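Researcher: Please predict.
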Amino acid sequence: MRKIFTSLFFLCVLLTGLSSMAQVKTVTGKITSSDDSGPLPGASVKIKGSTTGTSTDSNGSFTIQVPSSSAVLVISLIGYKTQEVTVGNRTTIALALASDSQQLEEVTVSTALGITRQAKSLGYAAQTVKSEDLNYNHQPNLVNALQGKVAGATISSTGGGPGQGASIRVRGVNSIDPNISGDPLYVIDGVQIDNSTSTVGANPGGNSYGSRGVTNRASDVNPEDIETINILKGGAATALYGLRGANGVVVITTKRGKQNGIQVNFNSTYGFENVLISPKVQTEYTQGVLGVYTNPPGGIGPAWGPTIAEAKLIDPTHPDKLFNNYDQAFGTGQQVKNSVSLTGGSDAIKFFSSISQLYQKGMMPNTDNKNLSARLNTDLIISPKFKASVNMNFTNSGGYTYAADRFGEGLAYFSPRYDVSDYENADGSQKYLGTNNPIWGTANNKLKGDVNRFIGGASLSYDPAKWLNLSYRFGIDTYNDNRVRTARGPMYTGEAMYDNEQGFYGEYNTKFRTLNSTLVATFTTKLGEDITGTLRLGQELYDRRIKEIGTLGSILGIYNFFNLTNAGVVTLSQNLREKRLVGYFGEATFDYKNYLFLTVTGRNDITSTLPKENRSFFYPSASLSYVFSDHLKLPSVINQAKLRLSYARIGKDASEYSTFTGYSPYGSLPTGTGGLTIASNLGNPDLLPEFTNTYEAGLEMSFFKNRLGFDFTYYYSLSQDQIIQTQISSAVGYVTKSINAGDIRNRGVELVINGKPIVGK
């Protein structure tokens, strides 16, 4: 009996265990967004009442083992409403999460190399500007549209006229050399683009011909095509971009298609602009000690000149009032823009296309700008593991520009006795009244630009396994900039010509092309129960070529016939600059229980602009994000609190040919033939890379259901071995030389305060 009882006991225990094991089952599923049915990577999937959980992969898929059919899964993701679902008899679960309006500030953001990460995981400062904020004032230049919206960024317009350039300085000046651009790197949908300002044709004959304002290439991008702009500020934020991101990075994400049928949007705007504040001028006393009214017999009159009434007694032609020529010179600027967009998609393909036309008439006389832009963004889902995208943007822009500072200088010299807007005699010559009329200059010394630009990119993404993603992106930015400079010559001897000299005609062309190629392998795995690790390894190639050609014909035979055959002297110019950069990089990120995040990066760049023995250099970075509101129990009014720390070392190279001593064309030989002479720059074969160490600490907090929040940042950077072009004694046969000399220390604080005092239902 004892043996029978013992056998029955063990049989019951075995059956009970088998019953428990039978209840444990594997559940797979996919989490998508209810907005566009797209997959949601990084969503948390946990078993309610336990610590067991997982997260979705890049396709939104997950796999989890549940103890029983009564288990409840809790699915959550920042920016979306949390949902709970009972497993029941299902082994596959498909769920769409709805957006949470109270968490929209915490959606994922696009960081370096197009990597999308949760905002709370970032250990550095990054600020996002959304489309509705960017286009609130319908500013046609996207750089100007960022004014007042980004902490730590100084944004200024370089000319003020229509289509003229604007620049950004992120966290101050980082270089002593004024010839080195301090602009950040611009990236549109993963394609690194150019925002340089070409001065070809702007000042062809030196100051004697007068300088003219020019555009920079950020003005080619249509702000209405932009979904978000993310400004990466610190060294840790831009480390993966290498030396090209040393001044910060402006990451631009354009609009994409959605799976909600075909939508057509048309937008038409008209705007005008006037000078907000002009200098105040006195209106009681007329021209001073050098005027014709202040030289009575026997001596010099008072320095402030006579009153208007006294002047009219001496000269009946004197006007009844003085002119404020700042008001007289500037008119009302106009802006007309029409745009139409078409968007749509299905499960396999999504697209966004747009076309826009812009015309601007400047406040300065005889200035304008036109811009025609077309865009097509396409996303393809070839298979669940294979995706592709293609982006194309074509722009034609141009118009007449003028230098605003030159115009303002002319107004300062002009006497208020005369109306500056009355600038021309009946024969077209200038009404010269002791000083040149700046409006006559805008009408008779012109620079017209015409730019055709294409920005294109293609990317491929392949998931051979759940833990591995391979991606490749290729981008091209190319434009052809044609400029024509015209200034008529004198009709008769002694005619006042301002800065036209004897008249001139110039044709200038800039061909610009950059290629960038990026290959990235991403490995993701669980390092124990609480830690998720991600490793990225990649290689990048950047290649740039700029060719500039100019022909200037001066001393016109027929004063208003603009043709090179009409020029007495023809001067040719040509310039070619090439640069190549190869980078190898790695990034490791660690996520501990979704509240502590560590990111470590390393990059090695090889640049063509430094000596062979110094052209390869390595620099690391590290950043930490601690979301202590998800770790500690805080008062209920606090929704999120995050502390972040980061360190980075950034490398920078030199301008092209700084290490090379070459030759320059020489066309003033007595024989009339051309030749060569030594270049003005003495090459430095010992030039070293420039390095900057950056440190950053920040605190982010939000309160009252995210209706109030702040972001505080302290940063410090020290740049050493600055690469500067310095003047040297001409006795050595050269004028300049690039050397490593000088340090720059840069530190400051940034504070961003967000508030929503009133929220509508």
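Model: Residues 1-6, 8-22, 101-105 have pLDDT under 50 and may be disordered.
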